[in-house]
Every structure is written in C-alpha cells, then in structure tokens.
User: Fold this.
Amino acid sequence: MSLFDRLFNRNRPREAMIPLYRGIVERGRDPRWYAQGGVPDTKDGRFDMIAAVIALVLLRLERDGETYASQSALLAELFIEDMDGQLRELGIGDIVVGKHIGKMMGALGGRLAAYRAGFSADGDTREALARNLYRGEPPSDGELAYTASRLESFGTALAAEPAETIIAGRLPDLS
Assistant:
C-alpha cells in the first residue's frame, strides 16, 4: 500500500473486518448462552462469551496457516478497540485502561490456547469451558452440556466454511 493510499485511508482492510466482528459479537451476545447455558450475564461473562466465539473464529482461520494472519490480527485489534471503548464507557480512566487492555489481551491469548486444546479431536471441551468461560464457577451439568454442544456445533460449522466466507462476515448460525 502506498503512502498516498494510507493517508487517504484507501484499501481499508480493517473496515472490511467489521462485518465479521459484528457477527462474532452478535453470536456472543445470544441470550441463550446466559439463560440456558448458565454463562454469567455480567460484563465478565459477556467478555468471556465473546472471547470464546472469537477464539473459535481465529482458530478456524489459523487452520489455513499464514494465509489469513493479517486478517486475524485485524480482528483481534477490533476486539481490543471495542473492549477499550467498553471500559471507557464504564468510566475507567486513561491511566488504568492500558492495564485492563493488557489483561484482556492475555486473557484472549489464554483462551486461544485453552480452546485450541479443548476443541481438538482428543480435547476436553467441557473442561476448557469450565476453566475459561465459567471461570471456575461450575455451571450445572445441563448448562455446561448445552454450551459445549452449541460451541462444538459452531466450531464444526466454521470448519466447513471457506475462510473467505468467514472473512466476509458470513458466519454460520448458532444451533
């Protein structure tokens, strides 16, 4: 991209990722996660649910190697920018926001590692969710089964989609 393009914001790859990010947030905010899945309907619970959905999307894109690394990075940037805005809306000041954002980036990285292992063929999805989504507050067996089943189905549907479809923001529906 030339300097002229950057100055005049042409070739807006970041903006192209907004539909995907919106789809992720929409799926993470689905009320069934909180009502039937027992995910805490708190700011932390909503963060954790959106982080779970974005982690599955990032893991799907990761499957194609470096091909979609720049899009994955842009998607993570949108997530952090959104979380920064959410913190500011909660009244957290500039001095402290950076520390919170650092913790959130660490949390997202931790979720990626946990879900990479948990959602693998020989992984334990329920254990990964219990530790990372419910943060050690055990849900009922039915709630955990519901959430694990839905996320596994979503992950399977993502795996069946071409990456270009996902990048365009056309995510599979939640079952």
The mean pLDDT is 86.
